[in-house]
Design a protein that fits this description.
There is one protein chain. By secondary structure, this protein is α/β, with parallel strands linked by helices. It is 52% helix and 11% strand. It has 19 helices and twelve strands. It has a four-stranded parallel beta sheet, with helices on one face. Helix 2 packs across helix 5 (119-150) and helix 3 crosses helix 4 (90-114).
Length: 483
């Protein structure tokens, strides 16, 4: 067999039938919304509706408000393309849902102002519509995260063009986040040293031209992802035309583009990407005010809990209650990050001894800067980390202005060489108690993935993005998905 024979590289057995072969994700979302809105309508009418026999005029007005509010939800969501977002992440879905709800408010605000006799109708309709947006948003997430993500064959099989570091990162991300709706099946790359090897657990099948020459190879996927557009330069258009797929995704870069507000424009046949660069000054002032208010309130509320944890730590193992560690705050500034101690006092010595004698642990620590099984952690410390209670003292760091509730990771000064040039971006905002990387895989992400996600957050930070992160953080804490 030749080196490019696809049978040498991959198993060409036919794939099993799709779990949901005929129903598109968008249609499933629309049907789900219809069912949810019907239940909401029945519930509201049952508990809040007026008896038609007692007051037929008021009952008819209520029915008009109910129907108007419920019908606006799928109508406005379809205008914003939410039913076609089965393969987009939570942030994009959240952003468009907020935009749809805002448009709904604007649409109903105009007649509310000019039609005085119908104001009660518009208040009721708007309240029902906003409730509908909230309930269907939760239902959509449950459907995508639950039913669709678990159905492997719903995910579009994709071939990744380029098996370099960026292609490997994309493959790992698609495998780790099934709700993105894509399932990588392999790589093609013109670097012959990579052929018949595996990258991110997937085979490198051969050169790019193999897709056009071998229907058996091309038949394994329905779309392609060009992992590194920079490698192909001006020849990108020619490359895309040679790929035997109707859909080709071209990745601009890992964390290097402000993607939340990016849109494309057709400049008379030339594709252009518009990226908004928003001045963060006003947003940072608002966020600092929120940090002060929320951290002060939370410190008062959790003070009894923190006192109890302090006593438990002293009883669990010898050593101080608090753990202080120098963290980077941008530029040449550092601060003392506070945590409840979750490790033995000789943790650093234990770590060096473990890394020197255990190559598997050393490799894991070099990749993730964490250990799955860490002997340095105390029995109580495991509980504190799993529930994230060890981070409660950082509320004081937030109140003092060292940190923010939401932001990039608080890196240690010794990690800055690995952060590299990205430090220039990350250092422009305060580190956060929680952040985008913490809610996007946490300990399952590599160090460089965390850096990329921190850069992405800083370049796209905003109140809506922060609200999204707070909601996901609350879910993770309730699930006990700590570090």
């Amino acid at each position: 067999m030749s080196k490019l024979d696809p049978d040498v590289v991959i198993d060409l057995t036919s794939a099993k039938k799709a779990t949901i072969p005929t129903i598109a994700p968008g249609l499933l979302l629309a049907l789900s919304d219809g069912l949810v809105l019907a239940l909401v309508g029945w519930t509201l009418n049952h508990f809040l509706g007026t008896d038609p026999l007692a007051d037929p005029v008021e009952a008819a007005a209520w029915q008009r408000s109910l129907v108007t509010g419920l019908m606006l939800v799928p109508l406005v969501k379809s205008v914003f393309g939410i039913y076609t977002l089965g393969r987009f992440d939570y942030m994009e879905r959240t952003r468009r849902t907020f935009q749809a709800a805002f448009l709904c408010c604007a649409v109903l605000a105009v007649p509310f102002i000019v039609m005085e006799g119908f104001r009660s109708f518009f208040v009721e309709a708007l309240s029902i519509a906003l409730l509908g947006f909230a309930v269907t948003y939760v239902a959509d997430l449950l459907l995508i995260q639950g039913l669709l993500s678990s159905a492997l064959d719903w995910r579009t099989p994709v071939m990744i063009v380029g098996a370099g570091p960026q292609g490997a990162a994309i493959a790992e991300k698609l495998q780790r986040l099934p709700w993105l709706g894509m399932r990588p099946v392999g790589f093609v790359d013109d670097d012959d040293s990579l052929w018949q090897t595996r990258v991110a657990g997937l085979p490198v099948m051969g050169p790019v031209e193999l897709l056009a020459k071998s229907p058996a190879v091309a038949g394994q996927a329905s779309a392609a992802i060009v992992a590194d557009m920079g490698r192909h330069g001006s020849d990108l258009t020619g490359l895309v035309r040679t790929l035997p797929f109707r859909q080709v995704y071209c990745v601009l870069g890992e964390g290097n583009v402000s993607a939340v507000d990016a849109t494309y424009h057709n400049l008379h046949g030339s594709l252009a990407l518009r990226v908004s660069v928003r001045p963060p000054t006003g947003y940072l002032r608002i966020r600092r005010a929120m940090d002060i208010v929320l951290s002060a309130i939370l410190l008062v509320l959790v003070a009894p809990l923190m006192l109890g944890l302090a006593v438990a730590i002293r009883l669990d193992s010898p050593g101080p209650v608090m753990f202080r560690q120098k963290r980077w705050a941008g530029g040449k500034q550092t601060f003392d990050l506070l945590k409840f101690r979750s490790m033995h006092v000789d943790a650093e010595e234990q770590l060096q001894h473990l890394l020197a004698n255990d190559p598997v642990a050393r490799e894991e620590y070099m990749t993730y800067h964490k250990l799955t099984v860490d002997p340095r952690i105390t029995p109580l410390g495991r509980f504190l980390r799993k529930t994230s209670l060890d981070e409660l003292p950082q509320l004081w760091n937030i109140l003092m202005g060292d940190m923010s509730l939401i932001g990039p990771r608080a890196y240690m000064p010794k990690e800055l060489p690995e952060v590299g040039d990205s430090a220039d971006v990350i250092g422009t905002v305060r580190p956060g108690l929680t952040g985008y990387w913490q809610v996007s895989g946490r300990h399952r992400t590599t160090f460089q993935e965390r850096v990329s996600m921190d850069v992405f957050y800083v370049r796209n930070c905003g109140l809506l993005f922060d609200f999204f992160i707070l909601c996901k953080t609350a879910v993770m804490v309730l699930k006990g998905d700590g570090s």
